[in-house]
């Protein structure tokens, strides 16, 4: 099937020509089966050459995917791509699309010691801290000298490992028994006009910091006395601190607003599967696309077929609805929420009012109040009030700003950049105020260039009211101090992308939420080549984003894989979803960034609880065949199914999307007065014999019944089916989705599934 958006005649662009899976089942490995790999590469060249001619084909071809994924990339114009798509061996031809990293990009940082996810002590013990598992990231690579990747005390590299350290030199990435693999992929990036050596390294070495951060979050070793700017000190450690780790660099400095290209991502998936990883963590994404044109969906399906767990970030396009990305049901999609830890730096006003904020910056030079101005009051003569209030470059007058604390509004440019601009104008301090969209719950502790803090929307309103009503306003910013057991926590991050799922609305996304705000983890120590970048570099740094929450789940996946080596990826995913919590540490419903009650479209099944996930009681299992039946129900024909299936798959006559055995339930269209019935199946992994009874929380205006309402299990591994019937209590159009849930319990385990349903007029 051939679909190309943005039709441009005659212009050559990079395309992915997808041929499905390899008949050798991904078992070939260099150098033992080099002939097989060479033969595959030659077959790709021959196919392309039959359209372009041999010489032109050799110039046009980029990647040849030879291990698990079957296909190649080539520089083609639209007419050439359309002709190739007609070839009987070609499943799909699609543009090499660019994607972005899912960090908030503004110093917008890990330790699971106090993280709101719960200290995974029992799970750590059972999993021996993830020993024996291999966790990989597809990201900007790794800073190998970080102490988080020290291999002291590690034994030999696992015998199953077939990976390499590409450019295994001091200048490249020297590996060890902890960091056992490093590869880089840049052909797609280069074809898009990028230069890998511009502001980066032609190796898996990380110049940006994002990849080092995510890899150490997932599997970083124990590092005592880790610190940042002297404000934070403690033991840094990843989710699975004794796991082996591998870095696959697919993201580079932005070109045309994209950092990571599908062809490079597919190549990295192909290599990671071949190398023998257990978990793949993907903290990047783009707009939602149908699965047959989505490189992350295709690559992750190949991984899941091999028993590899794949977690992906949900995206940073919140809080608007329908913005969640990485939507395939075989992917675990991770939202972001706050920790129960804050780095508090409060604002003390001369009128006695105290506004609580967060920061990692240093203290004011003197313990006294300073003159306070709205940044608009310090604007340069040529600048607009709006731009000055946002503290944009060249909008502040040094004569007005010098020695003052400036109140700046969040937005348009990076938070730390605003502080740098204020400092360059001579300001003594800065108070960064959230706008209404950012709300009160999303504050980020940044290592600002000057004494500064960030406050919420309502406190910002109070601050500007004080400035406008006082002749000589003054303020003081307290030094940053670390606080734990903060309530309420978790709170959903305002940037975290939200459901519903725009590709397959019957699959509720995101799946889970995890800590993604103010996360401390290892960082690059590379010196920036761009003079506009922050010249300061720290061994450990603080970042926010679903990029940061995703590797938390990847770390837990590594632990659970060590405990349950024979469980399927869907069973492990089910374990973390059905044991998640939907209440905060004050035992109230989890809130969003505006401090309103959040919904499953924000947090999925809830906030991850690693220890509970070790003993879920029941799991919702899914096989590769189940996923193929799901694609059948979406209308995929035999040609499209070849994208995902190793062999021809016979679609069932009555496949229904709503019957996918997912741990959550979503119904995008329930007609008033009518009902809908869905089938689910659970497997006993707890104790035997066991008796589970169902508890129901009905969505407003919708009746829910479960048949049978009691499940009895006589042995471990036994599966039982049940039906869920939803019926609208009245005929009418809902203003929005309504939410509820069902919970199976034996008195010890609580196996919870959220329900999201939209009632429409019959």
Automatic annotation (TrEMBL):
Positions of the PA domain: 387-463
Know the name of this protein? Answer: Uncharacterized protein
Intracellular or extracellular location(s): Secreted, Extracellular space, Apoplast
- Asked whether the keyword Protease is assigned, the reply is yes
For whether the record's keyword set contains Magnesium, the answer is no
| Highest taxon in the source lineage | Eukaryota
Principal location class: secreted
What biological function has been recorded for the protein in this entry?
Required for arbuscular mycorrhiza (AM) development during AM symbiosis with AM fungi (e.g. Glomeromycota intraradices).
Q: Which UniProt keywords apply?
A: Apoplast, Glycoprotein, Hydrolase, Protease, Secreted, Serine protease, Signal
Q: Which family does it belong to?
A: Belongs to the peptidase S8 family.
Coiled-coil features, chain-numbered ranges: none
